[in-house]
Amino acid sequence: MIEVTIDGKKIEVEKGTTALEAAEALGIEIPTLCYHPGLPADGNCRLCQVEVIDRGRKSLAISCMYPIRGPVEIFTDTEDVRRARKFVIQLLIARSPQSPVLQKLAEEYGVDVPDERFVQKGEVDLCIRCGRCVRACAELGNECIDFVSRGWEKEVNTPFNEPSKTCIGCGSCAEVCPTGAIVVTEKDGTRTIWDRTFRLVACDACGTPFATEEQLEAAKPEFEQTDTRVLCPRCRKIAEARTIVLLDGAQGGHV
Amino acid sequence: MEKIESLLLITPERCIGCGTCELACSIGHVGEFKPTASNISVLRFEAGVNVPMTCLQCDKPACVAACKTSALHKDAETGLVGIDGARCIGCRMCVMACPFGNISYNAAAKQTMKCDQCGGAPMCAEFCPAKAIEYLPADTANVQRKKAFAAKLAAGLSEVNV
User: Which of A244, A246, A247 to mutate to test the interface with B (most CBs of B within 10 A)?
Assistant: First the structure.
């Protein structure tokens, strides 16, 4: 165990704990966009910067990627830290001025509306290239999306910008997106995401479309069909409850 | 075997279908009376036949096996299947996997929802007026009752045809 000091508070952590995790354990809030506790850290958004004093040397570090290896002192809200975060927000909001998440951060850190010469024109682009979606998809073993191109052209997309063959339409990428840049639409028993339209499987009992075929396939072997019918969660519950009633020989017989 | 101190016992024969458990559960978890946001639901069949259904805290949970980010885990101490909401990435594999439909995903809150037995004081049991839901010490008699209930569900999984 290593004792570290964060904003004057002391905490003992395991070697390798990140500065962000240690701060969270102390209840100290550090703003993040690309960090997700369920995914490997990637240090893309640069918002979680903190000041680390290690053996007398001061430096800025990306807290989600900074493993604590010695008794360091960490400051999460110094002038240097705020200036660094402010700069990050300035760059992000120049690309996505319409993003409510970024607008809120800009207000909090006193970032002015960027000069319109530096603001991206054309289509609204809410993506901040943080890669949460990419990591979520990889974590699920599907790996349908990744960063493509470099520099200003860099974006998240499917291979060759075509509908992905390996996508299961689960929508995790959209769920983890911090800015709501990924859109999933459901209409008339279909779900569309990343330009691919999936037909939703209808529940054999109630007829409600509830999941894509690929999702049910991916959930095997955990997913079991109830007496060879494909049931939605609600109807699975009803089927089970009905069994109990039947086995109890409840009043009235068949239900 | 895990150490379980108390058991959530459901006795469907006693259930009067009032839905108090659903209200107690939702007010405890989401702060409003909203049966659709409840982690327990009363399934009402014909008159007088009601079955409250909630997470069974399986020994080998399908939801945990399906979870890729370890947001769901089987607690060795309490025997409960717990959620670390922050780790959830919303893939809904657990919802697909649960054979009983006892786990759900709240798209608005971006959270998976399941019974956590209110951390040791289940509201549903506390407010059930008919003692259809009880939270009792895990002594031999109660474990037997729980096993009998589980046996019915197991039988249902293999032979149900309704």
Answer: A244
